[in-house]
Predict the 3D structure of the following.
Amino acid sequence: MGQAALAATLFAVVVVMLGAWTRLVDAGLGCPDWPGCYGFLSVPQSEASIAIAEARFPHAPVDVSKGWPEMIHRYAAGILGLIVFGLAGYGIRHRKSGVPVRLPIFLAFFILLQGAFGMWTVTLKLWPQVVALHLLGGFTTLSLLALLTLRLRGRKPTIEPARATALARLRPWLYGGLMLVILQIALGAWTAANYAAVACTDIPTCQGEWWPKMDFQHGFDITQSVGPNYLGGQLTAEGRVAIQVTHRIGALVVLGYFTGLLLAFWRRTKNTSIQAAVGLVAVVLCAQILLGLANVVLHIPLSVAVAHNAMGAALLISVINLLWRLQGYRRRHGAQSMNANTKHQEATA
């Protein structure tokens, strides 16, 4: 089951990247219906099929170049769903042998919810609230699969009690860092859903100003009505600038926070296996910041933008991996302390 969970995690990364690709090539409405495409199982391409499709959806002319990215993403998401259901079924069948059960079952239900958001993304014409939640759902699915993979590995490192105590004190701060990463991903999702990535084409300034004209109320209005069609976005320029600038500030906050936190971890993890996990977070964070800068400097090239999404997922997973390793340290230290206290009580009895 461990290998299947790892395969599912890696495939989830592919699905996240395909979702980013679909958004970036403006193919979110490449098929106006769901789960098929103009009522077909694949994108209509022959003259006869296109004629039937356009008769069914007269207000949505067939664009094969837009339809295929959307359908490829759907096919991949469907395969991922089948893998997750298989993991849940295996967990239920072998629950008496100590295999995790609750997490795979929760994943199975969550994948159904994610499918519903995929449907609403199309039926509600790329309504930003649904698009952003659908993207966050993809990252959540990936995170849960990564956590399941780590649990199935079952190998937790050991460390001397004194150092374990020092690391345990940093765990709450790492949970805070995880929340910052999630918030930054949410800002990225909102940026993508509202087509605000190109609102600022220069860096470190935005439109030549350190604090350009912005409309935060409009940019972060989550009560906007549904429809008619959000392809290309409907926000004003000032609203999009507000989103982009907030996303940049969030990146600086994450970078500053993790710089201090990872330095603290690095000093306390010398000559331990956890130092590699700390270094991984640092490398992924630097790569993510560089990709974000490249997006602006190079004007959102497709390959860099997709890599930026993938690296955001990698940052989230690397932080979860570090937390999992710290959890193992804490538990072992707690057990060692209890054993030491018990032996001391027996010796003095």
Notes: Residues 159-349 form one domain. The mean pLDDT is 89.
